[in-house]
Design a protein that fits this description.
The protein is mostly helical and 182 residues long. Helices cover 64% and strands 12% of the residues. It has helices at residues 38-43, 46-65, 70-75, 78-99, 105-134, 139-171, and strands spanning 6-12, 20-26, 29-35. Helix 2 packs antiparallel against helix 4 (78-99), helix 4 (78-99) runs antiparallel to helix 5 (105-134) and helix 5 (105-134) packs antiparallel against helix 6 (139-171).
């Protein structure tokens, strides 16, 4: 996209809110992105926050207590089981790190993107294991854990869209997050 077609406008929505609204008009169509400091970026995604807090707790309990769900024991080879357990820990820590990243917004979003993609993969692994072992009796568990996987992949699409917007803003010479606002 040529930089001549990009018009950027920024406006503050109040000191108390701390929000920076960025308007990006590209070749006749508009796109808007609302960005704030790390508190505002995370306070509206409590579900994601709770999942990222719960994942490492589950992983640590699985490792410390040396227990696994029966479906995981039966359906996954030993190396995959260990990766799955430690993956839960890594996903949670990386996800929280990405959500609360104090530096550049793009870096935090990139870390969060890696975490949600990995969370989606780990949840999908569990869904396959549950369905392979329990079959139709696992419909409820597979549906709920499958929803976590799908939600993770949808969130990753949102993050990719936000990262693309940040790139376009940078190419246009605008800084959506001035120093001290990230």
């Amino acid at each position: 996209m040529p930089l001549d077609d990009v018009v950027v406008g920024m406006s503050w929505l109040g000191r108390r809110a701390g929000w920076l609204r960025v308007h990006l008009m590209c070749a006749g169509w508009g796109e808007e992105c609302v960005m704030g400091n790390f508190y505002e970026r995370t306070s509206h995604r409590l579900y994601e926050f709770v999942v990222f807090v719960t994942a490492p707790v589950c992983g640590v309990l699985l490792v410390a207590l040396n227990v696994r769900p029966q479906s995981v024991e039966v359906a996954m080879p030993d190396a995959i089981k260990v990766c799955w357990e430690f993956g839960l820990i890594v996903v949670g820590v990386a996800g929280l790190l990405g959500m609360f990243w104090p530096g550049q917004l793009g870096t935090g979003l990139g870390i969060e993107l890696a975490a949600v993609l990995m969370l989606g993969a780990i949840a999908a692994m569990y869904v396959v294991a549950v369905l392979a072992v329990a079959g139709g009796q696992a419909v409820v568990a597979a549906s709920f854990v499958g929803a976590v996987a799908v939600g993770s992949w949808l969130r990753s699409a949102e993050i990719v869209r936000s990262l693309r917007l940040l790139i376009r803003l940078h190419q246009a010479g605008a800084d959506p997050c001035p120093e001290g606002q990230t």
